[in-house]
Write a structure and sequence with these properties.
It is built from 3 helices and 4 strands; from the N terminus they run αββββαα. With 99 residues, the protein is of the alpha+beta class. It is 31% helix and 27% strand. The chain has a 4-stranded antiparallel sheet with strand order 1-4-3-2. The protein has one domain. It comes from Rotaria sordida.
């Protein structure tokens, strides 16, 4: 089998999928409109929370790229705090996540 030229290996290495983090937040009760499929929040970052498992009161968020790398430097508690602050811009009376 012939070897792959260096220029192709370099191109493949540069493509990469990148970093993608999934964050699941579970709440004790639903505070969002149950008709929604997602909740978009724009702060200094764009967050799109998806209603993942309505009966379990779970929202999921996908974060990619440099912001995902930045968040990985924080503790789970700091990340949750950042996300709760962003959601409270829309839902000021929401409860904190239970998980």
């Amino acid at each position: 089998m012939p070897s792959i030229p260096d220029w192709k290996i370099t191109a493949i290495d540069k493509m990469g999928f990148g970093l993608l983090n999934k964050i699941f937040l579970q709440f004790s009760s639903i505070f969002w409109d149950e008709k929604l499929q997602n909740i978009d929040v724009i702060t200094n970052h764009y967050y799109q929370f998806y209603v993942c498992i309505p009966e379990a009161r779970i929202l999921v968020l996908y974060i990619a790229g440099s912001h995902a790398r930045d968040l990985e430097q924080q503790s789970d508690e700091e990340i949750v705090k950042t996300l709760v602050i962003s959601l409270r811009r829309i839902y000021p009376l929401m409860t904190d996540p239970i998980k």
